[in-house]
Specification:
The structure holds two protein chains of two kinds. By secondary structure, chain A is an alpha+beta fold. In chain A, the strands form four sheets. In chain A, strands 9-1-11-10 form a four-stranded mixed β-sheet, with helices on one face. A three-stranded antiparallel β-sheet of chain A has the order 3-2-4, with helices on one face. Chain A has a two-stranded antiparallel ribbon with strand order 5-6. In chain A, β2 and β3 form a beta hairpin. Chain B is an all-alpha fold. Helix content of chain B is 73%, strand content 1%. Chain B is built from 15 helices and two strands. Classes of the chains: A alpha+beta, B mainly alpha.
């Protein structure tokens, strides 16, 4: 009797082990599919994995970031191509929202709404969200747009075929077709500077320190302090893009 | 760049600064339109072959050859639209598995090489052998090449042709569904764009493809009969009309369901889409696609289900209905592709689109792309005329 119970348990144990092993095997086999479906790469813990923090409460709308970005990265000067820009939100007393970004904020802003009609107004700097489940990486038919090991979304302009599918797929309007190269173009987080240990241009020039970037893999990094000290939010969280651009003080009107 | 400065003056509300230029123009409207015509024409052909709707026999070969002529052109507007057309081979050599667009090359080649060309070849092999024997000069040589050296026309070999052709048609039906359902998925899977992002998109694309393909074969059958001065087989035309009516009802119902669903759910994007539909798309959606492309053909074809008027009245009405359907489905594609890019993803404003006349993305170029399949079809019909097939003449 006693022996049988042990056997029964052993049989159950074996059965459970088999189920567990099968599940692990199946889930590991499905791992590539996860990568395929979500375009999600797990961060390489041995390298930095960058995220960005922008403090809307600190932004004064000087537009230096947008200007520096254009100069640093040879972005066409015409007002149709931006890797980085600033939006001026004005919420009126009647609840209506007015948004402006003349020349991406490079030339500064003029408030056009009379002061007595303004409920509140603020600036929102925009740039690539360097999503880790990024829709633009997902849709590229040839893999010309990809996520670097540091979590930076980049475009290989030697390989891009210029189908513009990624521009359609970016929910944040951060991509454009560069008329000079006829390929998709976007913020690289100044990857060329990052690699040399320099700050991206827009971070370098911000006079109020409204934007920071840091390594999510390093618990002592300033980005962790930023995320801990503030109630941050990403843009369009409903789209599950895995955005790594966190805003402090993001008003619900901002899209 | 000048046109972008012009558009800048017509921006309405707030759009992200990179959104002034429409990324996909009329060439990308043509791409799903032409692909849809292929899928639709093929499905009509398979009705005869697989579903044994024998009354459609007069249009069987025409439908197949139409599908081929249009498929040859289908990918070209897409490739010519690329920033780097000469890099397009990368889609085949290094496809990125997660991309909906990456599979297009394979779906296209499968459909062209495995389904259409093979089916037509099995169907025509017997005639190609006979024509090669009957003709002289260059034509004889072309027919000989087209037989691919398989000149056995014993009853046993012909029975095999029939059998293999049938199997390929059976495979062809899901392939046609795949081809166009897939084109719908390219748009339907873009979650950033609420006008596109709906699970209904592949289904709607498929049904409108069937509608347009059937209408195209109907149109071509009438035109070719008039050119050849032969009598139109009214039983066949009525049958096509019946199928067109059925699929048009389905298409209309599902497209309406999609809109009703959007209106009832009224998600975050509802206001901007409402403004889009009642503003920039009023003509193309309500008048061109809705009234002209759907309601009027439905009334004509529906009326014929109740009462069949005399041939003299019926034929021009069928002609009108097929033209209207073709016109309407073109604008359905327009409303999806262009409409989906007119509003900002900030949901706060609109850019504008003006179709230029000249240039690679202009009206004239689009017209050339649209005329090309008809020219190819004329050539194919001259080379392998269905009405001169030996088997057909025996029947």
């Amino acid at each position: 009797m006693g022996n049988e119970r042990v056997n029964e348990t052993r049989r159950n144990f074996l059965r459970k082990s088999a189920v567990l092993a099968g599940t692990i095997l199946a889930s590991s086999a499905s791992q590539p599919f996860t990568a395929m479906i979500f375009a999600a790469n797990q961060p390489d813990k041995s390298k930095p994995w960058y995220a960005i923090g922008i403090d809307i409460e600190k932004c004064i709308g000087c537009g230096m970031c947008a200007k520096a970005c254009k100069s640093e990265n040879d972005v066409p000067k015409d007002p149709f191509y931006y890797r980085s820009w600033v939006e001026q939100y004005t919420i009126k007393n009647d609840g209506t929202v007015s948004v402006m970004s003349p020349n991406g904020g490079i030339d500064g802003f003029m408030q056009t709404v009379p002061e007595e009609e303004i409920f509140k107004t603020f600036f929102v700097p925009k740039m690539c969200n360097h999503c880790y489940k990024s829709p633009c990486v997902q849709v590229c038919p040839v893999g010309a747009t990809f996520e670097s090991p540091e979590g930076v979304v980049l475009v290989d302009k030697e390989y891009c075929i210029g189908c513009r599918y990624c521009i359609q797929a970016c929910p944040y309007g951060c991509r454009y077709l560069n008329p000079a190269t006829e390929t998709a173009d976007k913020c690289t987080l100044c990857y060329h500077r990052l690699k040399k240990g320099l700050n991206p241009a827009c971070f370098e020039v911000c006079p109020t320190g409204a934007r920071i970037y840091g390594d999510l893999n390093d618990k002592d990094d300033k980005i962790h302090k930023f995320l801990k000290d503030h109630n941050t939010q990403v843009l369009k969280p409903n789209l599950n893009t895995g955005s790594k651009l966190f805003y402090n003080g993001l008003s619900s009107e901002v899209r | 760049m000048e046109h972008l400065y012009e558009i800048l003056k017509h921006v309405d509300g707030y759009i992200y600064p990179n959104e002034i230029e429409l990324q996909w123009g009329i060439l990308i409207v043509l791409y799903p339109y032409i692909t849809g015509l292929v899928a639709g024409a093929f499905i009509l052909a398979s009705l005869e072959r697989v579903f044994k709707v024998k009354v459609l026999r007069p249009t069987y070969h025409l439908a197949l050859l139409t599908a081929l002529a249009f498929l040859i052109v289908a990918g070209l507007p897409l490739v010519s639209h690329l920033g780097h057309p000469f890099r397009s081979y990368e889609i085949l050599t290094t496809p990125q598995g997660g991309s909906a667009m990456a599979i297009f090359g394979f779906v296209y080649l499968w459909y062209l090489m495995v389904v259409l060309l093979l089916e037509i070849w099995f169907d025509y092999r017997h005639d190609l052998v006979l024509w090669a024997n009957e003709s002289k000069g260059i034509k004889r040589r072309i027919y000989k090449i087209l037989t691919l050296g398989v000149t056995d026309i014993s009853p046993k070999a012909l029975a095999w042709d029939e059998k293999l052709g049938y199997i390929i048609t059976v495979i062809g039906i899901p392939s046609a569904f795949l081809l166009h359902g897939y084109v719908g998925f390219i748009f339907g899977s873009i979650k950033a764009n609420p006008w596109w992002s709906t699970v209904m998109m592949p289904v709607i694309f498929l049904l409108s493809a069937m509608v347009s393909g059937i209408a195209l074969v109907m149109f071509l059958y009438m035109v070719i009969s008039w050119i050849r001065k032969v009598k139109i087989d009214m039983a066949c035309l009525d049958e096509i009309g019946k199928f067109l009516f059925m699929v048009l009802i389905l298409d209309f119902t599902l497209e309406s369901l999609d809109q009703v669903h959007r209106i009832y759910e009224a998600e975050e994007s509802f206001e901007i889409l409402h403004m889009l539909v009642t503003g920039k798309l009023t003509y193309t959606l309500f008048i061109f696609q809705g009234i002209m492309g759907t309601i009027i053909p439905l009334l004509i074809l529906g009326f014929f289900r109740i009462h069949l008027p005399k041939e003299k009245l019926r034929t021009p009405m069928y002609f009108l209905a097929s033209c209207l359907v073709l016109f309407g489905v073109f604008f359905m594609r327009w409303n999806v592709v262009i409409g989906g890019q007119l509003f900002s993803k900030s949901f706060l404003g609109f850019t504008s689109f003006k179709l230029g006349m000249v240039g690679l993305e202009g009206f004239w170029m689009a017209l050339i792309w649209m005329i090309m399949p008809f020219l190819i079809l004329s050539f194919i019909l001259w080379l392998v005329p269905p009405w001169k097939k030996h088997a057909e003449n025996k029947v």
